[in-house]
Amino acid sequence: MAENPTEMKTGLFDRLMRIDRRVIFVFISVALIVPLFFNVSQRIQVSPEVQMLNDAMSKVPDGALVLYAMDYDPPSAPELQPMAVAAFKVALAKKFKMVIIGLWPQGPQQANMAFETATHDPLFKDVKLTYGVDYVNLGFQSGNEAVIQKMGSDIPTTFPRDYAGTPVDQLPLMKGIKNLGNFDFMVNISAGYPGTREWVQFGADRFGLKMVSGSTAVQTTEMSPYVGKQLLGLMGGMRGAAEFEQVSGYPGRAIKFMVGQSVAHVIVIVFIVIGNIAYFATRKKRGA
Amino acid sequence: MWMEHPGWVLFGTWVAALFTLGIATFLYKDNPVYKFCEAVFVGISAGYWFVSYFWQTLLPKLGYPFYAGVKTMFVGPAEWGWLVLLIPGTLGVMMLLRLVPKAGWIARWPLAFIVGYTAGLRLITFLQSNAMTQLQNSVQPVVRYDASGQFLGWESFNILLVTVGTFAGLFYFFFSQEHKGVFGRVARVGTWFLMITFGAAFGYTVMGRMSLLIGRLDFLLADWLHLIR
Fold it and tell me: Does ipTM come in above 0.85?
């Protein structure tokens, strides 16, 4: 005798409710790996926050003095490094004078790597930069928000030496830089505490620093309320990085990675929908 | 530098790749390889932070200035500014007394200092940045026009949404009145706004985790196996 179709359907939903998590891992892995092998890209729609960021950076005059605060470390690099690279490319194009610092110990090192990637772009092969004149890396300074507070009044005593140990008074670019008020603009790439929130609170709101931020996806919703007067633009996660690469005209790794990201998101959504259908279909049976 | 030698780079890439795979085995199930990789990671992280703070904080902020100050006492001209370092130095030693069971209570003093200092430093900034300025940013005309007098429908709708969400959210967190009647319905709208916010945060978290996985996969396929460029 044939099985009751309703029971068959319930059995299917029961099985769907018990999908092994490893099955989902396989789907996600395939979704992320396969696009890496193909030179495909997707259309990136630029969000208002990233458009604002790009507009704000575009308005900074050529040759302006810009502070780059790199507050992240290698675990966040897949999201944040493309932002840093694109931000440095903008700096190279606009001949910004760059002062790089980090409130995270590995931030200045990440900045050096991003800077090197940016300068190796064939677009900037003719750009010749001199360390100490066109850019400096002041390295890491411990103290979290207290460092920002102190930078508001005296940068040379906050960072007495650069990343390589050279006294700042021997760096021509640092001559005349007294405090945060000397900077025309600031770019912060942040993975958490201390990061964008502290720069907004102590740098932007207290000392009037004009700043934009790139943050990890996880903290983007917490930073979004600052966008407007306190934060002139925000890139959130890899999507934000891809949008900035797109709008700034320097396509890079974030755009490349977005295809896999999008496919994986579709798979997550499909599994959420399947899970919910199965849940509601089996709810009556479970007497809920 | 010796670390940039191609041999060391290759060795480092292999170690990183094998540890990545070792950690990834947890996706199948818990196993000794994962435990080993996890223990190595925790140990190296702790060691790294210790060394980092020792060289980048303890010595430059306390050790070197203290030594230089003491040196002036013997080779002159004597300077007394270094004496102020005795305060953080003493507080630091007091904090370490947590490790001594009988003297552990002494660590409460430096902790009290940290709590007091942080509260004082952050109270004003939070009040200014997260309360007053946010409030100022939220109070905007709901009906927006551009410079030529054209009505901006989408912007107006967004501001209306922010206004409704802010009020409804505040109603939800008003616990001194029972959530019933009109008050309860507005609070319920607030709950929906909160749920959408949490959903957006969770969506961003998923994206963040995917990005990290893409980063590792890219490392394995490009830097280690050279299968992609």
Answer: yes
